[in-house]
Amino acid sequence: MHVYLPIAEMSVNIFLILGMGVGVGVLSGIFGVGGGFLLTPLLFFIGVPSPVAVGTQAGQIVATSVSGVMAHWRRGNVDFKMGTVLLIGGIVGSTFGVWLFALLRTLGQIDLVIKLSYVIFLGVIGALMLIESIKAMMRTKSGKAGTGRKLHEHNWLHGLPFKMRFRRSQLYISAFLPLAIGFLVGVLSAIMGVGGGFVMVPAMIYLLGMPTSVVVGTSLFQIIFVAANATFLQSYLNQTVDIVLALLLLIGSVIGAQFGTRLGAKLRGEHLRGLLAAMVLAVGIKIMLDLIIPPSDIYSLSFSSGVGH
Fold first, then answer.
1. Which of 33, 61, 72, 74 has its CA 20 to 30 A from that of 213?
2. What are the CA-CA distances from residue 174 to residues 179, 180, 199, 204, 262 (Å)?
3. Are 190 and 94 in contact (CB under 8 A)?
4. What integer pLDDT is reported at residue 300 of this predicted model?
5. Alpha-carbon distance 55 to 241, whole Å?
6. HEC states along the chain?
């Protein structure tokens, strides 16, 4: 059963899109990520134009994150004060990112920039997370887990001015740090069509020093509003949001997020980070290969009449 996507100007299998939405919803509930780092490339792979995939995916992230936040909120795993500070930076960043997206699209470079961004960010962050999670699992197996290690280690970044106390996260740090992280994630949300959780989650753990149990729900909380802002601006300025595609992804992802939240509660923190790192690296490698391996038919011209020359 196929459905026509008016903005993407193509037909897709409705069950394929629903299945992709469910899968990404499960990831959102488990890892606290919007799932865009996986779903946006999948949309590339089935032929959805990059600008449409990015613009539409931001809308789907909103519904996925709302569903996940509700589940974590009931467990008391959301630091709303930290989420609000991250959100302020995210709104500014996503607004700037949409403007940059429009500029790059005008220059004809947006497709290359999107895919290169995925390769760089997914490769670096995935590798760092994988190394850390392997070390954590090795410490656990050797019986050294938690010995000599603080909940978090302070560095010069925590000594910046304008300090705030975040009681739920047991932190007293400069607000500039979460503001900067939120800004970066907001830019990524607009340029890459992601919630930014694959950057936000490790940054909250390793830079801010937040407990893993609070990170997931707090990450999803700020993603809701950042992605909503990016969706509105992408639709208004760039006309790249396909409402039919967004609704199909939304239906699947809301269902999947509920299952993911229950599954994530049963896994250890280092195992969660290891699984997320492996998926981040796999997606990054696939996009890199698509960029560097020449297609089988290098010169291919197609016309609306279906006649090629």
1. 61
2. 9, 11, 19, 13, 33
3. yes
4. 47
5. 5
6. CEEEECCCCEEEEHHHHHHHHHHHHHHHHHHCCCCHHHHHHHHHHCCCCHHHHHHHHHHHHHHHHHHHHHHHHHCCCCCHHHHHHHHHHHHHHHHHHHHHHHHHHHHCCHHHHHHHHHHHHHHHHHHHHHHHHHHHHHHHHCCCCCCCCCCCCCCHHHHCCCEEEECCCCEEEECHHHHHHHHHHHHHHHHHCCCCHHHHHHHHHHCCCCCHHHHHHHHHHHHHHHHHHHHHHHHHHHCCCCHHHHHHHHHHHHHHHHHHHHHHCCCCHHHHHHHHHHHHHHHHHHHHHHHHCCCCCCCCCCCCCCCCC
For residues 287 and 115, is the Cβ–Cβ distance under 8 A? yes
Question: How many angstroms separate the CA atoms of 192 and 61, rounded?
Answer: 12
> Tokens 């589940």 map to which residue?
71
Q: Determine the Cα–Cα distance for residues 226 and 66; give it in Å rounded to an integer.
A: 12
Look-up: residue for tokens 């010069």? 156
Pairwise CA distance, residues 2 & 153, whole Å: 53
75: tokens are: 């467990």
Confidence (pLDDT) at 183: 92
Terminal Cα-to-Cα distance of the chain (whole angstroms): 32
Tell me what pLDDT residue 96 has: 92
- 54, 94 Cβ separation under 8 angstroms: no
Nearest to 247 by CA among 68, 63, 67: 63
Reported as a single tens digit per residue, the pLDDT across 187-234 is 887 887 666 666 777 788 877 888 877 887 888 888 888 878 877 887
> Can you list the residues of the chain whose pLDDT is less than 50?
146-151, 300-309
